[in-house]
Design goal:
glycosyltransferase activity, single chain, Rossmann fold, 371 residues, transferase, 6-stranded parallel beta sheet, 2 domains, Glyco_trans_4-like_N, Glycosyltransferase family 4 protein
Length: 371
Amino acid sequence: MKILYTNYHKGDGGGHTTYLATLIRHLGVHHNVTLAVPASSRLYSETDVADLSRNVAVEYSSRIWNTPAVVSHLVNIMAADRFDIVHVNGSLDHRSVMLARMRLRGPRPPVVYTKHDNHEISGLGPLLRAHMATDHVIAVCDDSARKLLASPYARCPISTVKNGVDTGRYQPYPALECEALRRAWPVDTEDRLIIGSNAGTANYKNWLHMVEGVSLLPPQLRRQVLVAIAGLPPSIEQQARIMELGMAGQVYYAGLLSDVRPFVAAFDLGFVLSTRIETISFACREMMAMGKPVMVSRYAGLPENIDHGVDGWVVEPSSPGGIAQCLARIIPQRQQLRAMGREARAKSVAKFGVERFVGQTLAVYDELLAA
């Protein structure tokens, strides 16, 4: 099968990068995969090193005057290779593929669109893309599927394929190794409950809500907690908020990590508290696969990961007070966290595996080609 993957993100790319890199890593061995993404993207550089795809630099642009050149470039790519499937991953690359496909002579490849974010689906753009350049839609969570069914994409077949993680790569570390990793941090971790997140530091991730929640705890509980984050450096405004809360000594920034596993292994529980954009969160599933119970906000598909009180906790969105109440129950019962972590790991192996994710995606392609 000849597959063209497109994505418009420059730089890190977040979950889009994880999604496509996972598919390419597993499908590139048996199929002919081409990746059309910006040269400055992490996806371009990482998959180029892996040598599992043919990478073509395409600089997608929202500026109308750049569109003809981008579309012409895609026309040349698509005409030269005659792909069986084109899989688009964002509105900008989807629009460009739509315009390029209109210019192709002969058979036109079917287009699969994955809805990665929780942005509202409205306006002329989605209407045109749904009618002119979408043969199948993939929703990454049940919440997204419901919203797609109430959008112009309802005219298309919609499959829910929840994001999967490599549970062999993301697995619990031995307890002694976790302790050694904690001690290696340049902050005091002795007897502290470490609450961490590898979901990133963007504002919509609302990691500061965890810091605020900890700050609301009674002093005897608050001093037991260390909040650990990784990703891009916190902004000046975010740093100022930490200082304002008097939490500078209880927040550890680990940096922008190429491998988050040693970081995740060192903490006791994870969190993802997004209130915008997020759908189901690769980061949440990675932490659970590594045996960490996770606290999530009741937003979009995040609660779909968690059985409250069993392998994590669900709190109301934008509620530091609710987070504090939840932590006040967790801290005195820290001994239960390892059992909850085992439940998180068991769920990951049973439901979050990459084999299921890749297999269900491939089934969408096969269904289209058999039609």
